[in-house]
Specification:
Catalyzes the transfer of the amino group of L-glutamate to [LysW]-aminoadipate 6-semialdehyde, generating [LysW]-gamma-L-lysine. It holds the Pfam family Aminotran_3. By secondary structure, this protein is α/β, with parallel strands linked by helices. It contains 16 helices and 17 strands. The longest helix has 17 residues. It starts with 10 loop residues before the first helix and ends in a 13-residue tail after the last helix. It binds pyridoxal-5'-phosphate.
Amino acid sequence: MTGAPTHPQSKWLEAELKYDSRVVGKHEVVMTRGLGATVWDESGRSYIDCVAGYGVANVGHSHPDVVRAIKEQVDRLIVMPQSLPNDKRAEFLSELVSVTPAGLDRVFLCNSGTEAMEAAKKFAITGTGRKRFVSMKRGFSGRSLGALAFTWEPKYREPFGDAVDNRNVDFVTYGNIEELRAAVTSDTAAVILEAVQGEGGVRPATLEFMQEARRITQEKGALLILDEIQTGFCRTGKFFAAEHYGVVPDGMTLAKAMGGGIPIGAFVMTQEVADRMPAGGHGGTFGGNPLAMAAGVATIRAMKREGMAEQAREKGEYFMERLRAIQSPKIREVRGLGLMIGVELKEKSAPYIHALEHDEGVLALQATPLVVRFLPPVTISREQIDAVVAAFERVLSGVNPRAERQAQLAAQAAAGETAQGEAIQTE
Ligand SMILES: *Cc1c(COP(=O)(O)O)cnc(C)c1O
């Protein structure tokens, strides 16, 4: 599904294929517009978007409040470095700290999840005076050389050999308390953990594992850093996934949905951790820029006002209930938390994800070779969820409405009933 398209059909696709580095495999569509949980391609065909920019568009594409905030801010001020205080940044920091767990009230601002992980790593080193880390098998933390050291999947690390320095990282089996206890020592700066592993196949941690991770790190004087980049901002049915577990970490990495689509990242931490970083020990040009801050303020306020955590909880339960009702021998398990949902198949998921897009107009993500991942906007409607489930059921049973319609038209054309080459109406 993400191989190089063989027949570029539009000038946009052709140009993108010609000039892009092509390190990322491309689908054979050109997306041009989005609203709520719907996106459109250049031909005007609509799709129900359960990719949401890799779990970014939690408030929906082009949420009106976010659009208005961005438009107002571009007329006032776009760039201002963090050394110069700014009204929107002050507003954003206050909004952000109003939703983070109590005690996590110091914020380092940056532009992506990977940058948030890099910051977390440095703050953990200076915060503890230690430099070893414990990360999880199947964990994903980003792709810079620093963040890659925490990312388990060997295919992400191997092309770069020992340039990825993970001599200071021990990987333990996600969920295995004994392994974790053995790995955390008086040299451990931090344990890095996703409350629900995303890339690793949509696997929620058990209550026991999360609570033990908190206890063990506290006993050993190590930090517990939760990677809430994908799970944060209402995705799992709470503002942050940590809330499901009654666990307050020493730091959280945030990005993805926080800016309503505008790039933004943050490491939020305790005052104690923040105070131990030497002045000037970390920084960046674009972090905390007024445009991203304005988008972030509007995003967090919309999430609060529209009760998006509760919406994600209710819709997620409904979505998973409907998926579990599918009678298919190809499904091994449906799992998730809120609107972070994975369906593990007994065979490779890629062909089904491709069929969902191509035949049904539904965008879904892969997470490990066997899992189909759904990360829709929280604003997705029940009707759209029903449509996604019905489409998935058809795809699993090998029904292809587009191909059938095509065959039907071809048969009619052969019988002289319609003009040869009639266009297939897609949407
Ligand atoms: C997406 C993601 C990252 C990396 O964030 P980027 O914004 O892509 O740099 C890190 N950790 C988790 C859990 C993620 O889902």
